[in-house]
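I have been asked to look over a protein record a colleague put together. Alongside the sequence sits a line of tokens, each denoting a local backbone shape. Please read both lines and tell me whether the tokens look consistent with the sequence. I do not need a full report, just your reasoning and any doubts. I have pasted the whole thing underneath without changing anything.
>
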Amino acid sequence: MMKIEAKRRTTTAAGALAVLLAAGAAVAQTTIRVPADAATIQAAIDLAVDGDTVLVAAGSYNEALLVGELAVTLRSEDGAGATTLNGSGLDAPILTTVGTLTVEGFTFTGAGFGGAIDADGGSLVVIDSAFVANTNRGIDALATDVTVRGGSFTDNLAANGGAGVYVLGGSLTIDGTSFRGNLGRGLGGAIAVRSATLDARGLDMIDNGDGEIRDSGGAASVPPRVFGTFGGGAIYTSNVNGRIDSARIIASKAAFGGGLYIAAGGTLEVVNTLIADSLTGTGAIYTNASAPIIANSTIVDNEDWGLFAQRESRPIVRNSVFSGNEVYPRSIEIGGPGIADVAFSIVDGTASATIGDGVVFADPRLDDAFAPLPGSPTIDAGDNAGVPGGITADLLGGVRFFDDPDTPDTGAGTAPIVDLGAIEFGGGQAGPCRADFDGDGELTIFDFLGFQGAFDLGDLAADFDADGRLTVFDFLAFQTAFAVGCP
């Protein structure tokens, strides 16, 4: 500790000149190690100045950390699997920040009062970190620009919603992150964003929110549904601008919006997103006084409406698939007192909406991974103009505009014509036969075994969605490429 302080305070004339010429760059190079240079993480933070890095050795730490108005990095030496910040017994959040903070490679667990990270102003960047079993949110941010890259949120709780991440004001940018078993009551089982901007990409969301169907005791009416999450089993937004791109939302639960609840003003786009097997009392997607754009998404096999538009809602649906969404005792894919504007989409059931060009009432013919089967009416049937700007890939990272030579174009635009739904038929292939993992010219069980072996070893040859990471999306992309077969 004394060594670090002495180094900062001893400056020759030549050294002072060098500091001035470097405009402070020398200060930015300091790394304070825990426990080598400081016995505790908080002691290291107290030594830090803007630009410093606090590097934490592997272990479990039980501290209530306070970062003032600093621009610093808090990084683990060996990653989240080896370094835990445990909030058990603390009467404060594990980490409180009002500055410009980057956090990388920690597991946050056991937080009670105030949650794992409490951010109030400034900016917060969280990289490759895990939030597990915190009882009052993983990240709770007010008027803060929050960025989350990689990592996971598992089994977190929140009495008022946003059990994984809650952002009020500011912004949330989140990429390549998984959410499992998070239970936010109120609004937002896993994520809640209010009066902010949202840029969400590559989310893998399974079993978030709370609800169940109870035994009716043989009654003829639909069994009673009981919900602990009011709205947005996976994500709740209110007065939010931005985009949700390539989200996989499975088995989420809420009374309103089993997958998504989109409220109030703002312009939110939902693109390349899959919502399936959600349990809800009113829609897999629920819109309330809002007009989101739902494009190239697949909403299938949910318990209740696929899309429910509440009062003053005017959702715009393009290039999407609604199928198997059951409102007892029949299929109602799109409904509500609001008016959805639907064009160039598959609706496998009835709809209360404004029906425009290119809407097909038919079975979309999808496989078990919700990708189009050969001959599916989704293939080359979309409207190229309905794809939001900048979208060039589908849910699995495959080519978004991919022509199937065996299917006549029935959509609108200049070929190649976009497909309907979250996954483009054939778009995942980046060569003559991408799923031929062992290169023998045939698709067999050995290709599956080869892919699995590469994935287990961390070999990026298994990175089938080409995002630089190995996730469940690579399994889905491989399965789709295998189903497409070889030319």
User: Anything to note?
Assistant: Helices lie at 2-9, 13-22, 41-47, 445-456, 472-484. Confidence is low (pLDDT under 50) at residues 1-28. The two ends are 65 Å apart (CA to CA). The CA atoms of residues 262 and 426 lie 32 Å apart.
